[in-house]
Amino acid sequence: MCCSTEVDLRWKDAKGFNAPLPHELAEAWRTAFMKYFREKKPREGNIAAIFDAQEIDYVSFLERALKESAIDLRVLLGTMGSVKLKSPNITSPTWAYMFSDFMMQQGYDGVVYNEGSEGWGNTVASFVFYNLKKNGTYESWKEQI
């Protein structure tokens, strides 16, 4: 296993804090999501109505979010709310499942990102692997860096 490419979203000089997602990557995500949104097949049923409503709200949110000069990855994905942006805080939105494919299409095999852990004020780096064929296990990936 060789040469996987991860995007490290921690600040370079303060690894305990997250840096914003690069704006061009956020724009590319919005473009990819909008393509999906325009081309998706209609869903049926009550659950479908809930998913459709969330996605419609997410489209509006993306328009607001991309006007910001900096945005956190989890805020962009709607898995962490933002009072300023009036963003969703959804545990597992449908579009989060598309994000790994999007990132691989952008040339990234994973993400390094700080998340909260057990206890007050603790943060630990999370290693999210999208392309296990390149990344392998955490142990084999760690040897590459």
Task: Tell me briefly what this model is.
The protein has six helices and three strands, in the order βααααββαα. With 145 residues, it is α+β, with helices and mostly antiparallel strands. The chain has one domain.
The class by helix and strand makeup works out as alpha+beta
Tell me the number of helical segments per DSSP (H or I, 4 or more residues long). Answer: 6
Arrangement of strands in the largest sheet = 1-2-3
How would a crystallographer describe the biggest sheet?
Answer: 3 strands, mixed
Q: How many distinct beta strands?
A: 3
Mean of residue pLDDT? 84
End-to-end separation: 12 Å
Key features of this structure:
145 residues; alpha+beta; 3 strands; globular
Give an account of the 3D structure.
The structure is a single chain. With 145 residues, this protein is an alpha+beta fold. The chain contains 6 helices and 3 strands. The protein has one domain. Helix content is 43%, strand content 12%. Strand 2 and strand 3 (123-129) form a beta hairpin. Helix 1 packs antiparallel against helix 2 (46-65). It is globular and about 45 Å long. The mean pLDDT is 84.
Can you lay out the helices and strands and say which pair or pack?
Blueprint: E1 6-8, H1 23-39, H2 46-65, H3 73-77, H4 96-105, E2 110-116, E3 123-129, H5 132-135, H6 138-144
